[in-house]
Amino acid sequence: MEKILLNGELVNRKIAIDIEDRGYQFGDGVYEVIGVYNNIAFKLEEHLERLFESAEKINMDIELTIKQLKEKVLKLKKENLLKDGLIYVQVTRGITRRNHAYLDNKIKPNLIAYVLHQNRLPSEVYQNGVPVILTKDIRWLRCDIKSLNLLPNVLAKQNAIEKGAFEAILYRNDNITITEGSSTNVFVIKDKTIYTHPANNYILNGITRQIILDICIKLNLKVQEIEFSKSFLLNADEVFISGTYIDIVPVSRVLGEDVEFTNQKSITFKLMKELNKLTMSI
Question: Exposure pattern of 101-118 as b/e (b: 16+ CB <10 Å)?
Fold first, then answer.
């Protein structure tokens, strides 16, 4: 039977979740998703560091250290024979009598981790790109926290899928600024310059996003971490999205707009090639 990590111990997956767990009732918790390539948990430490940062931002302690959690996650991966796929790690504030305020200072956080055996996207996705839609960003103002509160993301992604798109690219109402995707970061290329939203409270600073920026430095590519509009995206030379385990995916067109990105995508493919060297060589 598949094993999960529950508060430091590997146990059988069939467990009971208390109905007063604050993650269940309030989404009061944080999470991380780590990609596993050829038996290697890619950038595991960076993901766990961000998990601890998210927990700190919501005033929640994780009882394990990063080193201890890393060892247990790797043991979980080994126990479940995970060679390619994902590791999901979630920490909630814990179980206490239902109240919006967490009045009990002795609440013990609940940590759960499990694995997902999963194949990579088909090769034609990377070769041909994917369609996207543009939709309003109705999320809260602390998107830098990898919170369990994902209902706006769920609705945006579902809307995209129902319209035949791969992803929903979000924009803020005030000045129609592009932020990110429902589960990805967004990059736009115009006149050989790469643009992406700055890593502030409006986006999650993706681990893959950070790797891409490092690759840009290595390749001496010009990057601007600045806000840009829907119009700017629609007039771009290339657009791509990034995320854990999907890596870099080119955008082929924006549904509902008379826009297709049909050029050679030379910069996007150059970045894809460099990122593949990191993930496929391990």
Answer: ebeeeebebbbbbbbeee
- Report the pLDDT averaged over residues 14-23: 92
User: All domains of the chain, ordered by start, with CATH?
Assistant: 3-117 (3.30.470.10), 123-280 (3.20.10.10)
What 8-state DSSP symbol labels residue 84? Answer: S
> Which of 33-68 are b and which e, b meaning 16 or more Cβ less than 10 Å from the residue's Cβ?
bbbbbeeebbbbeebbebbbebbeeeebebebeeee
Q: Which residues are catalytic?
A: 146
Q: Is the pLDDT of residue 282 over 60?
A: no
pLDDT of residue 105: 77
**Cβ–Cβ < 8 Å for 47, 165:** no
Helix (H, G, I), strand (E, B) or coil at 167: strand
Q: Say which amino acid occupies 115.
A: V
Mean pLDDT score across all residues of the chain: 95
User: Rounded CA gap, 107 and 117, in Å?
Assistant: 33
Higher pLDDT, 163 or 173: 163
Identify which has the larger pLDDT, 103 or 236. 236
Q: What is the CA radius of gyration of the chain?
A: 19
pLDDT digits (tens, 9 = 90+) for 210-246: 999 999 999 999 999 999 999 999 999 999 999 999 9
CA distances from 83 to 72, 86, 114, 246 (A): 16, 9, 14, 16
- Report helix, strand or coil for 90: strand
DSSP letter for each residue of 197-232: --SSTTS---HHHHHHHHHHHHTT-EEEE---BHHH
Name the amino acid, one letter, at 104. D
